[in-house]
Amino acid sequence: MGYDLIVKGGTITTATDTYVADIGIEKGKIAAIGTNLAVDGSKTIDAKGMRVIPGGIDVHTHLDMPFMGATTADDFVSGTTAAACGGTTSIVDFAIQKRGGSLREALDTWHGKAHGKSAVDYAFHMIVVDLPESRVKEMDKLVDEGVTTFKLFMAYPGIFMSDDATIFRAMSRTKENGGMVCMHAENGGVIDVLVQKALAEGKIEPKYHALTRPMSAEAEATRRAIALAEMAGVPLYIVHLSAGDAMEEVRRARERGHPAFAETCPQYLYLSYEDYEKPGFEGAKYVMSPPLRPKGNEERLWKGLQNNWLQVVSTDHCSFCMKAKGGKIGKELGKKDFSKIPNGAPGIETRMMLLWDAVAKGRITANRFVDITSTTPAKISGLYPRKGSIAPGADADLVLIDPKKKHTIRCKNLHMNVDYNPYEGVTVAGSIRDVLVRGERMVDGGRFVGRTTHGRFLKREPKALERMLS
Ligand code: DUC
Ligand code: ZN
Ligand code: ZN
Fold first, then answer.
1. Total structural domains in the chain?
2. Does residue 21 sit within a domain?
3. Model confidence, pTM
4. CB-ligand 1 contact for 285 (6 Å cutoff)
5. Is residue 103 part of a domain?
6. Cα–Cα distance, 216 to 219 (Å, whole number)
7. What average pLDDT does the segment 456-470 reach?
């Protein structure tokens, strides 16, 4: 008897190689790769003419998250269905510590939100908002349970923001326990002053969200975060980097030998400040933090991706409807005050196709595309080689891209539970045809056919970066 399933004759594309072969799958794992694998009763998927890539890994999502008086439109069911349809087979979502609460409590809450409600495999980061010395040891326990990354904020005073002492304390602990700090790097204190000043002057429209969060507030915080990591002697991962000036800080740190890493997101590559100037309240669709930057900034980020000054593209998927839906408040909350617009935008379903379009346009190679959307995210977050690779023994998380089937992004054809799409009407070069998560079909011919109970919690390995760098 042959394999459970053979993906036949596709162009296998990894972070390093491109070749035509068959992939034999057994018990959800890749069992063999070869030419003309014997079918011998196996089911087959004809992948001729398709690109076969390791499933996308989105290491930055917010599903079922309460934030700024609202709750994200997507929960784990809709968010991970959308992820699968968009070629993403694993996500790392953010659990959030309550001020004064334990990390354990927060993790249990997020396990409850995701367990039995996810189409794709999932892991968690922990957002730390409150870390007195007495709680530091709680981090070790999380690392033991596979929650190895801790997001801290230098922005959102009064909600998430940590002071330098807290950040340094958390970083120092990751040196002991093999975890890593992920940083939201914007100077929240300065931004707060600018926001209050704008509001006092009657500046209430969505564009003031961007105008009160300058690039230099991101660059300064990035520089400070790197300095703190250098003092603690630990690697650092900057999340959702938007500004070219902040990227230069990461680049400089790497050049002097400090292991600093950063992700950017499609919105910073494809959208710009001009979107805030759309008529009426339209600009609210793009209110996220950090904000969209002036035209020209995106060219710097593309250059960063080409040169490995940026290593990952994630989404920061954090969807809010424009208008209230299903009892959930929307962005309209900030109609009279931009600072009350729930921050965030949808992106989990469109990341892979937007980035594949960059391959078609010659901005990045197909191998670099796999590297920044799957392999390096897996390596940095402690999921590699189980995820992020096409190799015997790896999970059979495979995506078949039809590189010739252009399609136009339309909100009505997507699976995210949100009433707009930032890329409405944009035509991209390829389409996601088939998606497997651990050998099980999630998408067939572009249609979702999976189970939203299939996804499993991924316990991640500590010291991921040490392994990656050695
Ligand atoms: N930025 C957003 O836009 N939304 C959620 C949190 C964040 O950092
Ligand atoms: Zn953030
Ligand atoms: Zn985020």
1. 1
2. no
3. 0.98
4. no
5. yes
6. 5
7. 87
Q: Which ligand is nearest to the CA of 151?
A: 2
Rounded to whole angstroms, the Cα distance separating 85 from 219 reads: 35
Question: Does any domain span residue 304?
Answer: yes
Q: What are 393-437's pLDDT values in tens digits? A: 999 999 999 999 999 999 999 999 999 999 999 999 999 999 999
Residues with CB under 5 A from ligand 2 (ion): 184
Which residues constitute the domain of residue 60?
55-368
Instruction: Write phi, then psi, for 19 (nearest 5 degrees).
Output: -160, 160
Ligand 1 site-directed mutation target among 62, 129, 162, 242, most atoms within 8 Å of CB = 62
Instruction: Output the domain CATH number for residue 239.
Output: 3.20.20.140
Question: Contact at 8 Å (CB) between 294 and 277?
Answer: no
Please give the backbone phi and psi of residue 59, each rounded to the nearest 5 degrees, phi first: -90, 15
- Which pLDDT belongs to residue 273? 98
d(CA 417, CA 457): 23
Residue 25 has phi, psi (to 5 degrees) of: -115, 135
Q: Which ligand number lies closest to the CA of residue 213?
A: 1
Q: What pLDDT is recorded for position 466?
A: 79
By alpha-carbon position, which residue is closest to atom 4 of ligand 1?
Answer: 344
| Tens-place pLDDT, residues 367-403 | 999 999 999 999 999 999 999 999 999 999 999 999 9
Residue 200 within a domain: yes
